[in-house]
Amino acid sequence: MKKLDNFSNCLTVLKNADFKMADNNEIYRTGVIGQFNLTFELAWKALQEVMKQHGVTDAQTGSPREILQLGYKLGFVDDAQVWLLMLKKHNTSVHIYNEEEIDEMLLLIRDSFLPAFLELERTLKKKLQEVEEEWE
Q1: Torsion sign (Cα): 31, 37, 40, 42
Q2: What pTM was computed for the model?
Q3: How far is CA 36 from the centre of its chain?
Q4: pLDDT given for residue 73 in this prediction
Q5: Residue 123, number of CB atoms within 10 A of its CB
Q6: Tens digit of pLDDT for each residue in 65-84?
């Protein structure tokens, strides 16, 4: 599935980020945050698509918040608090200008958001496989 593949490819780039290098390289810091934003966009869209494959009619349309909440309700997303924080940080990340906020964002990406992305990827691949097995 294209949307899940795009999310996985983008996640691989973020997973390989060198967070030590981001400590003192401004362009790298900005790049990691940009990669997070792209990964987040692709994550909720992949979630939406896999839920549609599972016949979830409420997933046909909706904002990222609505899709994430639906995903949590249906067991596709396991930590609503992290995902809602991720949504908030995604929405405000383009307005981060001071170094402390950038440092906080990088720590959140490394310690909270990256593990949540990896868990979502595993879940979506499993859920997609379930649908494919039903078709066989």
Answers
A1: negative
A2: 0.94
A3: 8
A4: 96
A5: 17
A6: 999 999 999 999 999 999 99
